[in-house]
């Protein structure tokens, strides 16, 4: 494994045939969105039981009060895509990035120009009826009355992201597997690699195709660093892209 070799990695990225970007909470920290775990993480301040699926169904009002406060009023109304999101979006437009697989639910990749974004854990931008499965965009729902209800059947709406105790959407899961199986280069940014089954995506591709090049950007080591990472950058996402863009 090599560390902080910006010139070489820029050449690898530019020469890639199918570059997939795989991101976690760390890429959005510099947009003002705290991670869920670790120092300053949300779960050091809040009890995450409010997004446990069983708790949501048994206490929908209490759950929605916390969801609205933390995800809709606090996190998402104040966040903007940072240089990392914007650069990845630009690279996709230029044809360099083929796909983005993100564990984040903040929609910042799309706001940064990303089009082919696989939201592995879902998104806050849509809500789903727990009774009839009708999908609503967030701008169709005011959240003035909680819990929000489906206008078609009266069922309670749930944010369309994965709660604790809830499985990954199977179509999304298979799409992510098919996408990462094409990668000759995977750029991993801002994830500890602890959350399953998302963390298995880079591992499975590297083990099935050892020629796949893994580039990792993370201020602290992850489960990938000493196992499958080929090039490691112990820095933030924004700093990585700033330095990379300076290399001609």
List the keywords.
248 residues, 7-stranded parallel sheet, 3-stranded antiparallel sheet, elongated
The outline comes out as elongated
Provide the spatial order of strands within the biggest beta sheet: 1-10-9-8-2-3-4
Distance between the termini: 24 Å
**What is the strand content?**
15-25%
Query: Could you name the ranges where pLDDT drops below 50 across 5 or more consecutive residues?
Result: none
How much helicity do the residues have? 25-40%
How does this model look, in words?
The protein is built from nine helices and ten strands. It has helices at residues 6-15, 26-29, 53-58, 60-78, 83-93, 108-111, 170-180, 200-208, 237-246; strands at residues 2-3, 19-23, 97-102, 117-119, 122-129, 135-137, 157-161, 185-189, 213-217, 231-233. Strand 3 (97-102), helix 6 and strand 4 form a beta-alpha-beta unit. The chain is elongated, with a radius of gyration of 19 Å. The model has no long low-confidence stretch (mean pLDDT 94).
């Amino acid at each position: 494994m090599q560390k902080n070799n910006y010139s070489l990695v820029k050449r690898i990225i530019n020469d890639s045939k199918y570059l997939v970007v795989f991101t976690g909470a760390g890429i959005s920290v510099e947009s003002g969105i705290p991670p869920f775990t670790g120092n300053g993480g949300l779960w050091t301040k809040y009890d995450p039981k409010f997004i446990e699926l069983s708790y949501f169904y048994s206490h929908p009002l209490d759950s929605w009060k916390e969801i609205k406060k933390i995800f809709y009023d606090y996190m998402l109304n104040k966040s903007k895509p940072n240089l990392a999101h914007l650069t990845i979006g630009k690279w996709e437009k230029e044809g360099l990035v083929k796909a983005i697989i993100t564990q984040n639910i903040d929609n910042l990749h799309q706001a940064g120009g990303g089009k082919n974004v696989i939201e592995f854990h879902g998104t806050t931008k849509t809500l789903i009826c727990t009774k009839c499965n009708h999908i609503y965009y967030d701008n169709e729902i005011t959240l003035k009355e909680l819990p929000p209800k489906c206008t078609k059947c009266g069922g309670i709406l749930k944010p369309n992201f994965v709660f604790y105790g809830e499985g990954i959407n199977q179509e999304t899961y298979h799409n992510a597997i098919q996408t990462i199986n094409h990668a000759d280069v995977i750029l991993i940014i801002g994830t500890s690699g602890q959350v399953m089954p998302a963390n298995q995506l880079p591992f499975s591709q590297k083990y099935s195709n050892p020629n796949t090049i893994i580039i990792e950007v993370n201020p602290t080591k992850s489960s990938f660093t000493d196992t499958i990472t080929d090039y490691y950058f112990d820095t933030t996402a924004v700093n990585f892209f700033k330095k990379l863009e300076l290399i001609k």
